[in-house]
Amino acid sequence: MKNPSRFRTFVAGFTRLIERAGSDESRIFNEGGALLADLVSHDDWLPPACAQPHPQYYQQYLLYCDPLERFSVVSFVWGPGQKTPVHDHTVWGMVGMMRGAEVCRRFSRPAFGKPMQASEPEQLLPGRVDRVSPAVGDIHEVANAHDDCISISIHVYGANIGAVKRHVFDAATGAEKPFVSGYSSAMIPNFWDRSAEVRAML
Ligand code: FE
Rounded to the nearest whole angstrom, what is the distance from the C-alpha of residue 165 to the centroid of ligand 1? Predict the structure, then answer.
């Protein structure tokens, strides 16, 4: 982790935004999206422990959770060819691409017993931010765009996302099942050890 101050600055900025914006989603998307775009256009701050792929499953490492659970920040690490099921979020979310690329397809709300309508696949490239929420479209399927390398995106959600009751869908039938994602690690990284810079000023 060469530049942990970048993430501390992001968390401070996002906390100030949430204080001001409350539940004003378009303001969170606009101003928070700019903060996230800036964060992911610099790939010099993510601890290696939160950039580790798993041979079978995409990984979700919690980087920070607001004490009032108004937002959380997660690194998503995609092994070659890995993808999510079709799923929803139930809260606002932003996906900032940092390393590699993702492919996303959006889905319509299911109508009982009918196949779900899917959008054309869209690529998310480094430095770009995608949005989800019940208001702007909440159901999608996301995959690593690469079959031969790892991709990493940084996600911000309007809740402690690992503990939110959500749904996965069978796109062929529209059937839904409840799911709670959890997190891939029991630990969160320490971005707040600033002792070296303070000692240097002794
Ligand atoms: Fe998602």
Answer: 13
Tokens of 178: 């409840």
**pLDDT tens track for 33-65:** 999 999 999 999 999 999 999 999 999 999 999
Query: How far is it, in rounded angstroms, from Cα 57 to Cα 146?
Result: 15
Kindly give the distance from the C-alpha atom of residue 195 to the centroid of ligand 1, in angstroms, as a whole number. Answer: 36
> Model-level pTM greater than 0.70?
yes
Q: Is residue 77 pLDDT above 80, yes or no?
A: yes
> How many angstroms separate the alpha carbon of residue 6 from the centre of ligand 1?
24
CA of 19 to the centre of ligand 1 (A): 25
